[in-house]
Amino acid sequence: MSGKTIEEALRGASFSLREAGVDHPRDEAEFMLASISGLPRLTLFLERGCNLPAETAALYRDAVRRRCRGEPLAYISGVKEFYGLDFAVNCHVLVPRPETEGIVEAVLEWISVTGGTGTGPIDTVDLGTGSGNLAITLARLLPRARFRAVDRSPAALQIASSNAVRHAVQSRIQWHHGDYFKAFTGIEPWPRFNLVVSNPPYIKTSDLAELPASVRCYEPRLALDGGNDGLDGYRSLLRDLPAYAAKPCFMALEVGAGQAEAVTALCRELGFFRLLSQRLDYQGIPRVVTGLA
Ligand code: GLN
Fold first, then answer.
1. Does 14 contact ligand 1 (Cβ within 6 A)?
2. Residue ranges of the chain with pLDDT lower than 50?
3. Which residues contact 206 (CB under 8 A, 6 or more apart)?
């Protein structure tokens, strides 16, 4: 590709991406070149007749090749936007999805409708934090909140804490390695939370093989596999929730398509929440189950 102009490189990349079945080839071709060259897309357009430096061309060629093989764009560019913030991501964390923004919205609604914890702090836990997208976004939005974020993967905690530094909320988040609330075993004093958020893995083990290759072959299984019926994570965290809840306690859980009723039933069985509800995602699918106690 060396010796090519920006426009020629973009055309070649769009062609390869289209052949590989990528949905928006020109858009992705521009996004990747912008992220590799560090130039805004407008500049790429204005300078489309200029030659691409050989080094950039080589990096670009490699990125396009990875994308054509099915790797998610976010892992290639190394960033994904969530609720207006950029998060570093790699193969150790789930790529944040727009549906998950429903959790943030549910939390903001809880605070605007009920007043949250009034003028007190909001002790918050993010169970299965991944890239840290939920804890960090909420930390930016809720200056009175204090956070603990948990993950089973040390590599995920590493990237999450780098994202917290990037967004200047590192001093407000404590990171814990472990399995949901079990991560707090032995911690003194016993932590209690006003706000519990989680997007647990919720794909049935038997459905993992049917996921698109871009998910199945690249995203961490730990972040996807929800056990036999996809609900293992919900059972585990709900079992321990009452012991870790403060007053008031608001919980917002993301659920997979078709799981809202089953998760709501698990919450009801707990006999702990006085109010349960479901929020729809952008496609009208019940996506977030909330509980208030
Ligand atoms: N909390 C992260 C997210 O919502 C990671 C979730 C997960 O790994 N299942 O994107």
1. no
2. 1-2
3. 228
